[in-house]
Amino acid sequence: MNGYDITPEVSVVVPMYNEEESIADTVHQLRDALNRLTEDWEIVLVNDGSTDRTYEVAAEVAQDIPEVRIVSYQPNGGRGKALRTGLAHARGDIIAVGIVSLPDITTGFRVPVEEGELAIGARLRNLRLYYTHY
User: Is the pLDDT assigned to residue 96 strictly greater than 50?
Assistant: First the structure.
């Protein structure tokens, strides 16, 4: 990204709860996918009251990747609170939500989104990523 004050083209919000083992790989996968799409992006990690080292591991990753920002709170508030918090902190023109526990989180990370369009993706029975456009 060109600087912290520049609005990124894409924000990816990633809720986290006790993800110390997988968050670094998830962020690196997202970084690689986002770099293929655009130069202007950010990843907003939301630490939803983790009781393990999720925050510390995420902070180590964020030191090496300036496009990563972390929002953290205690106690655990659930996925809904984590999503609302992340969406409130996301600055991108396009906002996506990532899920840490999905294998290869970036599969299908190339959906064109035009102004006013909504794209929803879900993994169905670990078979493929499915998108619906509105």
Answer: yes
